[in-house]
C-alpha cells in the first residue's frame, strides 16, 4: 500500500518556499508531511498532502517542475527500538532506503518541524518576536 508524494523543485532564494506554500494554502490543500533537500540553486521539496490529484493540478498550473512518486507511510510505535526493528526488517530483506523523513499525526494537535538556518540566533529572535513558539530539547523529549 503506497501514498502519493509530490516532489517539487523550488528556487533556493528567500521567500520562494513561502510563495509555493501560499499557492497550496490558497487552494485549501493541507500538507501532512514535508521535507526539503537542498542544492545550490534549488531545493527539492517533498510533500504529502490531503489531496494529491488537486495539488498536482495546482502545482502544474503554477508552472513548477514536479513529480509524483509512490512511497510507503509506515506507522511506527512510539517506543525505543521500533524504528530499528523496521529498518532491520528492510535490511534483512535487502531493501535499501533512498531517503526518509518523519511527521506526526493530528492526534497531538500540533506539528513540529525542524528548520536548518544559517543564523540560529537571528532566526530565534525573529520567531520569538513574532510570538512563534520554539520547542526546547526537553519539550521534544516529552512528546
Query: What's the helix count?
Result: 5
Radius of gyration: 17 Å
- Give the overall average pLDDT: 82
Task: Spell out the CATH superfamily.
Answer: VC0802-like
Q: Helical proportion?
A: 25-40%
Strand order in the sheet with the most strands: 2-3-1-4
Q: How can the largest sheet be summarized?
A: 4 strands, antiparallel
CATH-defined architecture: 2-Layer Sandwich
Any idea what the shape is?
Answer: globular
Q: What fold name goes in the CATH topology slot? A: VC0802-like
Note the beta-strand portion: 15-25%
What is the class in the CATH system? Answer: Alpha Beta
| Number of domain modules | 1
Could you state the order of secondary-structure elements as H and E?
EHEEHEHHH
How far apart the termini lie comes to: 28 Å
Low-confidence stretches: none
- Which structural class fits the helix and strand makeup? alpha+beta
Total beta-strand segments? 4
Please provide a written account of the structure:
It is a single chain. The protein contains five helices and four strands, in the order βαββαβααα. It has a four-stranded antiparallel sheet with strand order 2-3-1-4, covered by helices on one side. It is globular. The mean pLDDT is 82. It has a single domain (3-142), classed as VC0802-like (2-Layer Sandwich), CATH 3.30.2130. A hairpin with a 3-residue loop joins strand 2 and strand 3 (42-49). The protein has 143 residues and is of the alpha+beta class. Helix content is 34%, strand content 22%. The two termini are 28 Å apart.
